[in-house]
Amino acid sequence: MLSLRLLYLVSFVCFSQSALATVIYTWVDKDGVSHYSQQPPADVDSKKVYSEDIEPAQVGYVPVKSASSSSQSSTSEMDLAQKAALIKERDAEQAASICESAKHSLNVLNTYQHLHRKDADTGEEIVITEEERLAQIEKNEERKQLFCQ
Length: 149
What we know:
By secondary structure, the protein is of the alpha+beta class. It is built from four helices and five strands, in the order H-E-E-E-H-H-E-E-H. It has helices at about 1-20, 70-90, 90-110, 130-145, and strands spanning about 25-30, 35, 45-50, 115-120, 125. It is extended. About 5% of the residues are buried.
């Protein structure tokens, strides 16, 4: 009897995912703005989208490293450009991955003002200062310029 209950529980959990899917209606208004709703709009041609088919947006963690000194920056920029060219030449997939990572990091850094990072030694969350955020934006802009062309 216990195994029969367990079987019912497992089958309920397995098939409940599809029961939780909802219909979402999407349409674009006359100004070009996209709208999403669970209620169909009146007098507007809308498209049905199922919630289980929507791919969630990428959410990530942007590690912040201390900025390098200005005396090393000119030589490191040349090294970085040479390394980027070498990576693009040898492995286009890796270059595309670096490009996407830089774009995502820029999106996070430009969207949110109050960011946190984990301390590598203690694992404690530390608030990222505005200077660190701007340095990371600059670094990822450079990565985007090097790898997204």
